[in-house]
Amino acid sequence: MVVLTFVFVLPRIANYREVWDVVQDLTWPQIGALLLATLLNLATYAPPWQAALPGLSYRHGSVLTLASTASTYVAPGGAAVGMAASYAMLRAWKFERAPIALAVTITGIWNQFAMLGFPIVALALLTLQNERNALLETVALIGLAIFVLAVAAFAVGLAKEGFTRRVGDLAARIASWGLHVIRRKPVTWTGESFVRFRTNAIELLRRRWLLLTVTTLAGQLTVFGVMLVSLRVTGVSGSEVSLIEAFAAWSIVRLLGSLPVTPGGIGIVEVGLTGALVGFGGHNAEVVAAVLVYRALTIVPTLLLGSIAGASWKHFQPADPL
Q1: What is the pLDDT of residues 96-105, one digit of tens each?
Q2: DSSP 4
Q3: Residue of 291, 292, 279, 293 whose CA lies nearest to 240
Q4: Is the separation of the CB atoms in 87 and 101 below 8 Å?
Q5: Residue 130: left (phi > 0), alpha (psi -120 to 50), or beta?
Q6: For the chain, what are the domain ranges?
């Protein structure tokens, strides 16, 4: 995928020599704007986890999220890899299983809600401007259907204790059957475990749903901020690709890139984002330069800092985990 993207596809859109000329023309104030946007994005990693897991400090939340996010860039599996890494780190830090499971689930659900909702918002904004985009319309409609179903299922699960218990019992039977196939012992949890989880989720969301929503949106939108700054400093003006068009392209590709096809969506995001931005009117070389700068600033710092966090997280034992 990497070879296909960077050796065959992108060079057909813009010559790398022209792309390098665009990057070389960046001024120090423009580089400073890019670094500021990147730092702001990194600063928003921890707050959603602090909202979902009482007792987690900003320092430990940053170590946790940097390490777990970096893991998604080096291993296939997407968000599932990051969730598994987060769970393992928090257990080693002596946090209890139930709060960890709740935090992993809630942060994952809120992030998915945001990614499903962004294309819907983008489609509405483009419609108000009397613009149409076939790909965005398709993705937005699919996202809307999944979003409605997911919200409905989540709401029913929280509202109906009996439904939650039946789902839990069914999940336990399926899991036990799967373990029996590979000659392992059955699970020890039942539908009552799901009921306890439901009770804890209701209590957490009643107190922290607004904080969780605001911090999740901040974490997502600062990523868009990095892309928008990358576009503007590389010469893609608002007359070529407007703010709404940039948001539409970003929201489509971010959702598609979340699919666990390649680690971090490498290849998929670059090709998809470049194609969408050029389709909206961006100049080829400037768009490719912006996309490569954006991807470098959202992957490389996280990968480097996450590697350091992953190698040293055991030294960050919280004083009094809850």
Answers
A1: 888 998 999 8
A2: I
A3: 279
A4: yes
A5: left
A6: 17-52+62-132+219-314
